[in-house]
Design a protein that fits this description.
The protein is an alpha/beta fold. It has two domains: about 110 residues, no CATH class; about 170 residues, Nucleotidyltransferase, domain 5. Helix content is about 45%, strand content about 15%. It is built from 14 helices and eight strands. Strands 1, 4, 5, 6, 7 and 8 form a six-stranded mixed sheet that branches.
Length: about 350
């Protein structure tokens, strides 16, 4: 909010909030929002000539997306809190006298953000700022994938015609006819999602392929339909992440292949992919010990997935389609990264 547009009430609210400690207030002061505004410039209403109630500053709307990630809020819930929660209003720089976006405006703005792909640029930009503040990129990368259920899982519809009994009206025909039991399948409206069975659990949805550092900070994400195999996405994940020669790459047996191991060798990266024993291949104690040693480091990415699923909505997408789900998972992951980075920096002040 521009200082020249603040009312006396806004100043009073600001003074009251300055007396409390909260990560929203801290984060708001940490980030160079002018850089974020530059990233989001193509979505600026002054450039796109978006009229009416959709004409909100892109930085304000991006902060709305972050709040939804931190507090797992739907668009109607977000609309309510922007009108009633002074801390949320202040974080997004809305004046007490200013109108705030309703749920449909939030939804339409997200659609524009999704189609632009600019959420990926802001993700990288904000994480770059944290590294400039002293967030160390710790050696040891972890690669893994997790399943995310679709918002629109297919459902079975069962129609059963029962035989008339008791005093119910009977057909005059000597031999009544009854419709056969019919089972029909209702297809999902989410055409991009796919089925994947893991153990005894079947999931219709997507797969988030992730690479983290040893801090648990997510460095790269790729979202695919659930049936895409982990091994196939390994080269792209490695290619999306700035790596130095000698970096250690940890991964479970799902990534074991000669092609992936050769990729690491070619790029001067240390191979810590767990070995997957071939059929009829004898057990090797040395390999078993190596696998065990690798698994002891992988708790980092498992912890990251646990946090993303428990608190950031990664168990199930709120939206339909690969494009919208990718934006949703990126924004939730950025919200997680920010809180994780702030926690690490608080223990390691520059």
């Amino acid at each position: 909010m521009r200082r020249d547009k603040m009312t006396m009430t806004d100043y009073d609210i600001q003074n009251r909030l300055n007396q409390i400690e909260h990560f929203l207030l801290e984060f708001k002061e940490m980030v160079n929002w002018d850089k974020v505004k530059k990233y989001l410039e193509p979505l600026d209403p002054q450039r796109t000539k978006v009229a009416g109630r959709d004409s909100y500053d892109p930085v304000k709307m991006f902060r709305v997306m972050l709040l939804q990630g931190w507090y797992d809020l739907s668009d109607p819930e977000m609309e309510f809190y922007l009108r009633t929660n002074l801390l949320f209003m202040n974080f997004c720089d809305f004046s007490i006298t200013e109108s705030t976006p309703d749920h449909s405006t939030i939804s339409r703005w997200r659609d524009r953000l999704t189609k632009s792909g600019l959420y990926k640029t802001v993700f990288e930009g904000i994480m770059g700022e944290f590294h400039e503040m002293g967030l160390e990129v710790r050696k040891g990368k972890m690669v893994d994938a997790t399943l995310i259920s679709s918002q629109a899982r297919p459902r079975k519809k069962v129609f059963i015609e029962t035989e008339p009994t008791g005093d119910e009206a009977q057909s005059e025909e000597s031999t009544p006819t009854f419709e056969a039991t019919e089972v029909t399948i209702e297809e999902s409206v989410d055409k991009d999602a796919r089925w994947m069975k893991k153990g005894n659990q079947s999931t219709y949805g997507y797969k988030g392929h992730v690479l983290t550092d040893a801090n648990g900070i997510v460095e790269s994400i790729i979202v695919t339909p659930a049936n895409v195999h982990d091994t196939v996405m390994f080269p792209e994940l490695i290619g999306k992440t700035p790596l130095e020669e000698g970096d250690i790459i940890h991964a479970d047996k799902g990534y074991h292949s000669e092609a992936n191991k050769e990729l690491l060798r070619t790029n001067g990266l240390e191979d810590r992919i767990m070995h997957k024993r071939k059929r009829n291949e004898p057990e090797d104690d040395a390999i078993k010990q190596r696998n065990k040693a690798i698994s002891q480091h992988r708790y980092v990415i498992e912890r990251t997935f646990g946090s993303l699923k428990r608190s950031y909505g990664w168990s199930r997408s709120r939206y339909v389609g690969l494009e919208k789900t990718t934006c949703y998972l990126y924004m939730r992951c950025l919200a997680y990264n920010i809180k994780r980075a702030m926690k690490i920096l608080s223990f390691n002040p520059v």
